[in-house]
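Format notes (please read before filing issues)

Several people have asked whether sequences and structure tokens are stored in separate files. They are not. Every record keeps both together, in the order shown below: the sequence lines, then the token lines. Line labels are part of the format and must not be stripped during preprocessing.
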Amino acid sequence: MPLAANAPGHEIGASRRSALIVLAACCLFVLPSQASAGTAYGIYDARTLAMGGASVASANNDNAQFYNSALLAFNEEVEEKTRDSRFLFPLLIPQLSESAITIEELAQDDPTGSISRAIRDFNAAPDATNAQLVIDATSILDDALADLDGQDIFSDIYFGLAVSEPGQLQGAGFFFGARVLAGGQSDVVAVDLDLLAAYEEGLTFIASGGAQGVAHPELFDANGALVNPVNDFESSVSAVGVVLTEAGVAMSRQIELFGQPLAAGLSFKVQRIDTFEDSERVVDDRISVRRNNEYDADVNFDVGLVREFGERWRLGLAVKDIIPHNYDTALGTVVRLRPRARIGVAYQAGPVQVAADADLTQNQALGSE
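Then the structure lines:
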């Protein structure tokens, strides 16, 4: 993002170039040699969700403890005068992929139940009207499976609370919450799509009196009744997930680092980790969930730095979960919690704020390994 070189307070002089070098040097120590699995930086409040996830340089007293606790250190007065402390509860932030929404809609719409009822009505009265009901029911499932074919599944849901207490050139905060992360893949088998297409063709042939579609006598049993195919569908979805519950305390202060004025923040967290794996057929309620009987508990840290340039620009760097950990699911899949580094820049003029963040570490989605 360009800076106005001639604007008062916005020139980038030698000291500010040094500050940029300091922040860039810090980044070199947090880049892992391999991708971390499944734990993106995270969105924990509605404001950041509305800003597309940008937060490392643009968060405020409401939410800084989630993203970069150094941002709590920019009050110039004590809290008793500013009244800038915050208490946020409840925080509920759901993020779901289109494929996850499709699966949820399938569970609610019960397409196999609709197919079964339509076939029962057709066998009771095999006319054009009931044939069309079978066509409609199978078409809904056919379209849904086509939408799922080859799609990754992702969900990220956070629920929690936050308290902040900014002071004069320093600040503190507390946060507690649970984040449910899950990722997986769909396996839509070609046999299911072919079978649905056969029902649509065969029933179209009957509904049109042979003018359209193709006859499929294999869909009928020896007594001439239309066979119900719902028990033959094998398309499935599988997912790996983790429930990450954490309570943390954030602290921040304005300091000098290598002669440069910076705000620094540190968050100490106690974490509980529950892992699970889930495999289910797309078209019914047969679910096989394997969850560990025991949970894991660890401590971890987040760190952050922020450098101001004039009155409107900020550059931030933050790293979440400094200590790497591995967790095994009941089926042996490894969920890796790795340091996640992000750099961000923000510009604010009155009520207008523009911000952009960039991840410095690659995060591989859960369930994609």
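For reference, the curators noted about this record: The longest strand covers residues 236-257. The helical segments are 14-27, 46-50, 64-67, 79-82, 98-109, 111-124, 128-148, 190-207.
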